[in-house]
Amino acid sequence: xxxxxxxxxxxxxxxxxxTLVYGIRWHMKPNTEKCLKEELRQNVLVKGEYEVAPVEGQxxxxxxxxxxxxxxSQKEDITTGKFTFSVENxxxxxxxxxxxxxxxxxxxxxxxxxxIKTGVExxxxxxxxxxxxxxxxxxxxxxxxxxxxSIVLDFEDMKKRADEMRNTNxxxxxxxxxxxxLSMICLIGFATWQIFYLKRYFKAKRLIE
Length: 209
Hints:
Helix content: 40-55%
CATH architecture of the domain at 20-123: Sandwich
Strand order of the largest sheet: 1-8-3-6
Low-confidence stretches: 1-21
Order of helices and strands: HEEEEEEEEHH
Distance between the termini: 97 Å
Largest sheet: 4 strands, antiparallel
CATH class of the domain at 20-123: Mainly Beta
CATH topology of the domain at 20-123: Jelly Rolls
Strand content: 25-35%
Mean pLDDT: 81
CATH superfamily of the domain at 20-123: icosahedral virus
Shape: elongated
């Protein structure tokens, strides 16, 4: 039993490191744009909640896009609300907030709050418990199972990135080595040609025998 609780504690500690949950608040100047970017692996659920302080005569829109400029979520003139989308492939995603002042109104700074949850934290476990009629302990075990799976997938993703980076470094080192060798051969060949050319030139001018 002690071993089980130690593993449980270790799993919870790891899950706190690999699960993305953050809420940020900032002040947005009129007629400006602020974007937040995040890399996400495939098959990840993303949920966001936003709140904008209303200001007369100006509005804020938001848009969520991937690296190929595909729109995943979008809404104009927001105040409070939520958005949800699922990531199909590993990619870089960004959410942008755009401030616009309408008419001849004077622009003011607006306060914006954004709370984003991904992965396990984005799942509605209360709904899962009701649909599957799970007991509280079974629900906790389900959550731990999802956390463990998320940790394994994150470690696999990190290992894949490390392998790709190592392969890139090895390929770059080989290219630099061959380029250095080629440059050295070219310099030696050019220096040899220059010596023979100057020698013939000086002989032609009878400066040397």
